[in-house]
Amino acid sequence: MKFLFVFGTRPEAIKLCPLILYLKKIAHVEVCITGQHKELIEPILTLFQITPNYDLALLQPNQALSDLSARCIQAISTIYQAVQPDCVIVQGDTTTSMCAALSAFYQKIPVAHVEAGLRTYELYSPFPEEINRQIISRIAHYHFVPTERNKNNLITEGCDPKNIFVTGNTGIDALLWILKNKTVSVDSIIDLKNKKLILVTGHRREHFGLPFEQLCYGIKKIAEAFPDVVIVYPVHLNPNVQKPVQKILNELNNVKLIPPLNYPDFVALMSKASLILTDSGGVQEEAPSLNVPILVMRDATERQESVEQGFSFLVGTDSQKIFNFAKKCLLEKDFYQPIGGNPYGDGKAVEKIAAILQVKIKKMVAV
To answer: Do 2-168+348-366 and 185-331 agree at the fold level?
Structure first.
């Protein structure tokens, strides 16, 4: 059995590296990275001691999605012709994942989709991820979904139930591995002086412009109303993020704008936080395992389970709404009362996926 993993961003790397290591014990595995987020992905590969077999180095400054997609499809097709994999494994909803799946379809190579079935059914939210994931679902042979809701989404769309498997999310496997093996002291990252920590992540493409400015003004309101709280914001390298963040938040004494963190450092801050503000998908999955409330700064989320169980609150990018919910989380002890455990799994997703792939691909190759 020969598996080829294709990915290009930090979240994909975090969620796929544990599966790569596990499958290497039982099969031939090769890794192709596209370089979609090259600076952010290399520390993750180093952390898990994974060396890619192929690096397409597609990253270009301010590249349009259409340009990236065209170059990605063409470059990946060449790799497929050389490797001849029995199965291509992609994760999530990135442009890299969509292009890798489409290239595999053109060459009639089976695709396994990790973290399948997430939906908002809002065309441009998240953008372009919502359509990316729908395209992948039409192509994929095997769908590894985190939750029953995700499974039902795919069944409703006509996917074969026999090829849909509820496994949990591999991101939880990665998180628990870090907590067990790579513990980092928060004091080595930032001096909190025994103050409460609010952790912020914000980078979504659909928020660029006025929505992102409003998001930043919401953070500013919190900082001014709670001077005894430290707000830490590892700022994404994209200029569309850097410019408004520096303009609106840079002069506030209790807002610490820092470069993107290595994953173990970020996990350490999540673990210490009293509140997380994010427009990220992965953080919505991880924080419930740490019992930290989340304000989701998006108008729609494909991770409704955490909202329904009370782990997260959907606040959009309206500055006043962000402030109001942050105030409730910080001051009202009974406001955050989640129900049940993490809906995205218990850290066993990798084992489940590997066992299923081993059986499915072995049967396919035998035929």
So the answer is: yes
Catalytic residue chosen out of the listed positions 115, 173, 299, 305: 115
179, pLDDT greater than 70: yes
Residue spans of the domains in the chain: they are 2-168+348-366, 185-331
If DSSP states are collapsed to H, E and C, what string results for 330-348? HHCCCCCCCCCCCCCCCCC
Asked if 93 is an active-site residue, the reply is yes
pLDDT for 131 beyond 90:
yes
d(CA 173, CA 261): 19
Closest CA to 58 of 81, 76, 31: 76
CA 45 to chain centre: 16
| Residue-wise pLDDT tens digits, 252-269 | 999 999 998 999 999 999
Active site residue 115: yes
- Catalytic residue (choose from 93, 130, 299, 305): 93
* Active-site residue flag, 129: yes
pTM listed for this prediction: 0.92
Residue 236 is among the residues annotated as catalytic for this protein: yes
Integer Cα distance of 173 and 178 in angstroms? 9
Q: Based on the residue annotation, tell me whether 71 is a catalytic residue of this protein.
A: no
Fold of 185-331: Rossmann fold (3.40.50)
Pick the CATH number of 2-168+348-366 from 3.40.50.1820, 3.30.1330.90, 3.40.50.2000, 3.30.70.270: 3.40.50.2000
What pLDDT digit, counting tens, does each position of 258-316 carry?
Answer: 998 999 999 999 999 999 999 988 999 999 999 999 999 999 999 999 999 999 999 99
Active-site position among 86, 129, 173, 213: 129
